[in-house]
Amino acid sequence: MIEGLWENIGQALAKEWTARMLTPAFTFWGGGLLAWAFRYGWGDLAAWWSARSVFEQAALLVGGLFLVAFSAVVVEWAQDRILRWAEGYWPQPLWPLRFALARRWEKKAQRMEERWQELAERCGGDPERLSPPERAEYARLDAFRLRLPVDPGRMMPTLLGNLLRAAEEHAWVRYGLEAGVCWPRLWFLLPRDVREEIAAARSRLNEATRWLGWGLLFVVWTVWAWWAAPVGLLIAGLAWQGMTRAALVYGDLVRAAFDLYHPLLFKHLGWPKPKGPEDGRRLTEYLARGICPPSL
What we know:
With 296 residues, the protein is mainly alpha-helical. It has 11 helices and no strands.
C-alpha cells in the first residue's frame, strides 16, 4: 500500500514538473534567450558556451532548470493576485477608473436588457416569430444577460469580473446562500465526478491566468528584441480570451452545483428542508456567525 502510494505521488510530481518545464516558464526563458541572441548574435553565445568546461556547462544547465522551475512556482503563487486584477479588484488609486468602467458595464447591461425585452414582447414567448437575425440576437442576449450580475450596482469593470461575480451571486439570489460562506461546505458534499468537473474548469481558468502573467512578463524582453512586445501582448490577449471562456464554464458549473445539491447543506446540518431564500439566509448567518434561529 505504502509503496503504491509513493509511486502515485512520484508520478504526479513528475507530470507537474514536466508541465512546468515544457509550457509557460520554459517559453518565457527560451524567448528571452532568443531575444538576447537577436540583439547580440548566436556567435558570441556559442563561443562563450564553448569556453566553459563540462562541469561549468552541467552546472549552468542545472541552474537554468532550477530557474525555470522556481519562476513557474512564483507565478503560480501570484496567479490568484493576477486573477483578482483581471476581475477588476484594483487598489484605491485606481478606483475612479474601476467605477467608471463598472458604470459603463451597467449602462451596457441596461441596453441589452431593454433590447431583450423588446424582442421578447415581439415574439410573445415564441422565438420562431422573429426573423433569423433577430432570433440569433435574442438567443445571444438571453444567454449573456443571465451571466451578468443581477444587481447593476454590483457590476465589475471587466467582463471576467462580471462573469465570476454573477456565478457567486447566483446562490444568494436564488437560495439566499452566500457563496463565499457556503461553497466550501457544499464542496465536500458534492459527488466525486462533479468535484472533478468543477476542479478541471477551475484549473483551466488558473492555467489561462498564468499564461496572462507570462505574456505580460514577456514584454520585458523588448530591451533586446522589438518583437517581444507584440508577441507578449498576443500571448496575453489569447490568454484573456481563454480566461473568459474558462470563466463561463466554471460559472455555469458552480451555478449548477448550487441548483442541484444545495439541499444537502440543510440535510447534513440537521436543518429543515428549505422553502425559500429566507431559509438560506438564516443558514448563511448560522455558518458565518453561529447565529441560529430560535425555532432550531
